[in-house]
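Late entry, evening session. Most of the bench is empty. Finally got around to the prediction I had been postponing all week. Sequence below, unchanged from the version circulated by S.P.
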Amino acid sequence: MAEQEKLQVIIVHSAKYQTTYTKKYENRKVWEEPNLNHIKSYIPGTVIDILIKEGQKVEAGDSIMILDAMKMYNDIKMPFKGTIQKINIEKGQKIPKNYVMIEIEPAE
């Protein structure tokens, strides 16, 4: 009976299975849907330059900042047309992976 109490339900392609979870699985980072209006750092690095200002309208493909990561300069470009809502970084700041650097409001 003790084994039955430890069983958990997992759903794979709409099929339900009963299984036991490992500690690694129980302690995993839970997936959350990405917010496409946030530009996050995909690698840790240092902000070299910020080429935009809050409230500025920017076109898709425009350079918005330079991030130095692993001794390489990464030109971060605007993914879509929109307005810069908030800048959460400063020039010279060291940032970790998945840090929300810039928040965007999409153009209508």
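Two things to note before I forget:
The radius of gyration is 20 Å.
The beta strands are 8-12, 15-19, 38-40, 45-50, 57-58, 63-69, 72-77, 82-87, 94-95, 100-106.
Will write this up properly tomorrow.
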